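Researcher: I'm preparing a figure for a lab meeting and need a structural model of a single chain. I don't have an experimental structure, so a prediction will have to do for now. The sequence is pasted below. Please return the structure as C-alpha cells so I can convert it later.
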Amino acid sequence: MSQRTKTQPIRSLDHVLGVIESCARILDETLPANSQFRAEALEIRSAAAHGAQLTRDLLTPPVLHASPTTRPRVLVADDDRTFLKIAAALLTHQGFDVVAVDDGRGALAALAMSIGPQSFDAIVSDVQMPNCDGIELLREVRRVDLDVPVILMSGTLDVASATAAIEYGAFRYVAKPIEPARFAEVVRHATRAHALARLRREAQQVTGSIRRVSDRAGLEVRFEQAIDGMWMAFQPIVYASGAPFGFEALMRSREASMATPGAILDAAEALDRVTTVGRRVRALVAAHRHDGVLFVNLHSTDLFDPELLDPTSPLTTIASTVVLEITERAQLTWSPELASRIARLRELGFRLAIDDIGAGYSGLTTFTEVEPELVKLDMALVREVHRSTLKQRTIHALCTLCHEFGSLVVAEGVETVEEQDLLVSLGCDLLQGYLIGRPSNDAHPRATAP
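Model: Understood. Here is the structure written out cell by cell.
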C-alpha cells in the first residue's frame, strides 16, 4: 500500500470529524443550556472524536520495539466481543501476536497451550467473565508462569476488586473505556517488564539463587505445590552417653521456592494457612515407621487446632512416642484456654518441649508456664561454646534450672567434638547436630557415635 493510499482515509476522516464538530459548535451556541438536543449533540461529538482516534491508531504504522523476527505474544480475554475485536485489531496492528478469547474457559485453554515459544508475554483480562473471572485467571496463570504480567480491566471500578487485583499481583488495573494509544502502551510496557523478568530468572538459574514469590496469586500456587511436595527428613538425637534417644522430624519440600521450613512457614503465615502445614506434617510423620522418640515441631498457632486434640487423628494414635516441640515464631500468650489445651495434650500421652530457649519469644516465662519435659538450647549458644566463657556459664545455669524442674536439656547444632565434650560436662542430657548425624529421609537414621 502506498503512502498516499494510507493517508487518504485519515484525511477523509478528519474532514468528517470537522463537519461534526462544526455542527456541534453551532448547536452549542444556539440551543439553551438545558436542551436535550444540545446534550445529544455533545455526546455525538465526543463519540465521533473517540472513534476517529481509534481509527487513526489502526491506520497509523506501528512503532515496534521487539526484534524484527519476534512479535510479543499477548492473550486478550473479554466477554465484550466488540471490545475484544477492537483490542485484537489494535494490538495486531501495533506489532503484537494476539490470541483473543471471549470467556474464562477459552483463556484457560489458551494458557494450557502456552508452552515454550508459545508462551505469552502479557495477558489482558476483564475482571468479570463467565467460567473464570480475572482474579481466578490470574491465579491459574501463576501455576505456569510466575513472571508474565497480567493486566486486569473493568468497566465498573470498585475498591474491593482493585484491592484484590493489587494483592494478587496484577501488573495494572485499568478502567474501560481506555484510550487506544494508552491501551497499546500499557501492553507494550507489560511485555518489556516480562522480558526483564525473564533475564532476571535466567541470571538466577545461573547463580543458583532461589526466586521469591512476591504476589498473593503466585504465593498461593507455590504454597499448594510446597504442601503437595512436602516430605520429612529425620535427624538423630542421642543421650550424652551416645545411646540412641530418638530423632527430630524436619519439614522439607520439593518446591524449589519453598524448600526450607522457614520459607514454608513464612508463606503459611502470610496466607493464614499455618494449620494446613501443621496437619500435613503430623500426617506425614505418623505415616513413617520409627524407632525411639519423635520430636515434631509445633507452631504456636497449632495449639488451637481442634485436630491436635482429636483422639483419632494420625499423630495422637502414637502420642506416647511423640514430643511436641513448640516453636514460638509468634508470641505465645498464656491463657486459661491454652493451659487447658496443654493439659489435654498430656492426657493424650504427648510430651512437650520448648524450642530454642534464649531466642525469639522463648523465655523463662513460657518455660515456667508450660513446664516442658524437654528444653532445646538455642543453637547460637551451642556454636563454638568451647571458645566462650560467657556461653559456658549461661548453659550451665540453664541446665541447672531445667533439671530443678525435671526437664531434660537438648543441645542442638553440635558440630565439633570440642563442643560435644564441653556441653556434656556442662550438664546437657541429649545431643543433636551434624556431628551426631545429618538429616535423612530414612525413618531409621543412624547416629554417629560421640
